[in-house]
Specification:
The longest helix is centred in the first third of the chain and has 33 residues. The chain has about 120 residues and is α/β, with parallel strands linked by helices. Strands 1, 2, 3, 4 and 5 form a five-stranded mixed sheet that branches.
Length: about 120
């Protein structure tokens, strides 16, 4: 085994450990700020009204966190993009939107759905 191949494997192991740590931190943050949070009736009503007022292909932007959803069906939103300097707040907003959507009967696709993610440090 060459030194480069060994070094590459060592880096993969380090990246895997960092990834595991990041996943654990995200699970704890999500538990605290999303899982323990309950949307109000007005949150649900607002999302229903907003989505019903959109045409298919229309965009809904959450400017404070740089998240854009596209309406892709009658009661169906898809995460289109994230352009942010605060990825954590964007992720929390996305997960809360998904939770409100579940209560409202609106499908909110977020898994591997974004066309692009742009992080501004």
């Amino acid at each position: 085994m060459s030194y480069c191949a060994f070094r590459f494997r060592k880096c993969d192991f380090v990246d895997e450990k960092i990834s595991d740590s990041a996943e654990k931190v995200w699970r704890e943050i999500k538990r605290k700020y999303v899982d323990e949070w309950e949307p109000s009736e007005s949150d649900v009503e607002w999302l229903v009204k907003t989505v019903s007022g959109m045409k298919v292909g229309g965009k809904w932007i959450i400017p404070a966190v740089g998240v854009t959803f596209e309406k892709v069906g009658e009661n169906h939103l898809r995460l289109e993009s994230i352009v942010t300097n605060d990825m954590l707040s964007a992720m929390i907003a996305i997960e809360k939107t998904k939770k409100v959507g579940e209560r409202a009967g609106i499908k909110v696709d977020v898994e591997k759905a974004a066309d692009y993610i742009l992080f501004h440090p």
